[in-house]
Each structure stands twice: as structure tokens, then as C-alpha cells.
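[job 4471] stage=fold_predict status=RUNNING
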Amino acid sequence: MNAVTKTLSAATSTATKLSGPILYNAKIAGQIAKQVYIREGMAPPSGAQIESAKQATIKFVKSAGSANTWKNISKDQYLKAGLVAAEAYTFFLFGEIIGRRNFVGYDVESADSHAEHH
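[job 4471] inference complete, writing C-alpha cells
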């Protein structure tokens, strides 16, 4: 029981030491984000903007089966859609790298090393 108490005490001590720098850095990140938000003129979408986007999406989905819909899309729109898809795929890849904690492959033991244990 004494080892558990020592471990818990050490963890609490470490958390206490780190809480100051973590809070400080979180406040700094918040201030930077606020400055970017103001400088870029960002704002959450209004209800009208959300409703407009919703209606446009519904209209597009309903007309997606028609060949004319795809013919009326410009090359620039296809390019933008491709760039958005590439961006989404890149975020997916970064998520995979973070999840694996490795750039290539998963940390899996080979069959040969597994056979040695039996």
C-alpha cells in the first residue's frame, strides 16, 4: 500500500508542477486565437447562412442523379472539390500517424518473434 501512496503522491506532485505552465500556455493560445479571430473578421454563421447552405445542399443532392448537373459544374469547381478532398485525406493521414504514434505501419510483432514465446 505504501508504494501506491508514493506513486500517487509523485503523480500529484508532477501534476501540480505542470498545472502552472499548462494553464499559462492555454491562456496564451486563447489570446492568439482571439487575435486571429478578430483580425480575420471571423464570425459564426448566422441562421440565414446555415439555412441557405442547407437548402443548396438539399437541392444539389436531389439533382445529383441528372447528367446536366455534372455538366454545369465548372473546372474551377471541380478543382476546388479536389483540393477539399485532398485536404480531408491529409487530415485523415495525420490522424492515422498520431493514432499509430509512427509514420509508417503499426508496431506489430512479427510471426517469427511470436513463435519464440511458445
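[job 4471] summary: The chain has two domains: 1-43, 74-118.
[job 4471] exit 0
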